[in-house]
């Protein structure tokens, strides 16, 4: 089983996670820029974080034979903070970087006018930079947030096949399926989706334009949920080709629209021995 996790926050994960992911078949990931759990107080905090995504984290993943890509954006939650919104003027510099395969995560958190404005501006950036867009649907008022998301996508002129609407569930998937956008599902302990529900939706909607991710982050989450979903699909009667489509070919097709995927040989580049790299090899 080969796996491309299209939404995972490896900055918040350990090297043990990278080892386990590699052993489970994960060969590539996309790490979306997101809220770190504590409010940022200035634009410099964003740029340091973005630099780490395109530099250090990409290097760290390579030690374990995993190709790391990222998406760059002002996340919806911090779009409400006037200390953070000036980063919108900095984004074009990062959207031109190698390994940046989409604008994201963008979308809604609390459905405020500030979020609406930041979302629209970043969809414009996706059009201008010829990149796909990764959209976060809100945890609250998810149906309303998804409907407004699809309205803004239509207004932006960004082709729906270049938009991935993520964190979907049974109440929101139909509208996104009908829109022509890609459908993203986060398989996550306690919240979002689980493997059994995901398999039921795949039976109903089929594997086309479906991406499954772990969304693993600082909270209680599992970076092997993609692998476990593949096993659940096989146990439910899906064949190896269906699993490969959902867990590999679909994310390759979607993010491949950026022209920046790096999917060459993913053998580990070196042994990551504890903190030796952090200490400059000493």
From TrEMBL:
<dbReference type="InterPro" id="IPR001130">
    <property type="entry name" value="TatD-like"/>
</dbReference>
<dbReference type="InterPro" id="IPR012022">
    <property type="entry name" value="UCP005295"/>
</dbReference>
<keyword id="KW-0378">Hydrolase</keyword>
<protein>
    <recommendedName>
        <fullName>TatD DNase family protein</fullName>
    </recommendedName>
</protein>
<comment type="similarity">
    <text>Belongs to the metallo-dependent hydrolases superfamily.</text>
</comment>
<dbReference type="GO" id="GO:0016788">
    <property type="term" value="F:hydrolase activity, acting on ester bonds"/>
</dbReference>
<dbReference type="GO" id="GO:0046872">
    <property type="term" value="F:metal ion binding"/>
</dbReference>
<dbReference type="InterPro" id="IPR032466">
    <property type="entry name" value="Metal_Hydrolase"/>
</dbReference>
<keyword id="KW-0479">Metal-binding</keyword>
<dbReference type="Pfam" id="PF01026">
    <property type="entry name" value="TatD_DNase"/>
</dbReference>
């Amino acid at each position: 089983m080969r796996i491309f996790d299209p939404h995972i926050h490896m900055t918040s994960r350990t090297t043990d996670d990278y080892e386990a992911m590699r052993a489970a078949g994960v060969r590539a990931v996309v790490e979306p820029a997101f809220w770190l759990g504590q409010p940022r107080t200035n634009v410099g905090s964003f740029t340091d974080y973005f630099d780490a995504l395109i530099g250090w984290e990409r290097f760290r993943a390579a030690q374990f034979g995993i190709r790391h890509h990222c998406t760059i954006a002002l996340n919806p939650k911090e779009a409400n903070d006037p200390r953070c919104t000036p980063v919108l003027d900095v984004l074009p510099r990062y959207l031109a970087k190698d390994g940046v395969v989409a604008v994201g995560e963008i979308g809604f958190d609390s459905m405020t006018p500030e979020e609406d404005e930041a979302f629209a501006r970043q969809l414009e950036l996706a059009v201008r930079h010829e990149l796909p867009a990764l959209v976060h649907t809100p945890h609250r008022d998810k149906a309303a947030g998804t409907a407004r998301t699809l309205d803004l996508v239509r207004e932006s002129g960004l082709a729906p096949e270049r938009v991935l609407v993520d964190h979907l569930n049974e109440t929101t998937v139909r509208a996104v399926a009908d829109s022509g956008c890609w459908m993203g599902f986060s398989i996550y302990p306690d919240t979002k989706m689980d493997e059994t529900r995901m398999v039921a939706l795949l039976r109903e909607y089929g594997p086309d334009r479906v991406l499954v991710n772990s969304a693993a982050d600082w909270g209680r989450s599992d970076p092997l949920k993609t692998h476990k979903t593949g096993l659940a699909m096989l146990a439910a009667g899906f064949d190896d080709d269906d699993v490969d489509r959902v867990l590999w070919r679909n994310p390759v097709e979607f993010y491949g629209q950026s022209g920046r995927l790096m999917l060459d040989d993913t053998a580990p580049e070196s042994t990551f021995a504890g903190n030796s790299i952090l200490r400059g090899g000493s």
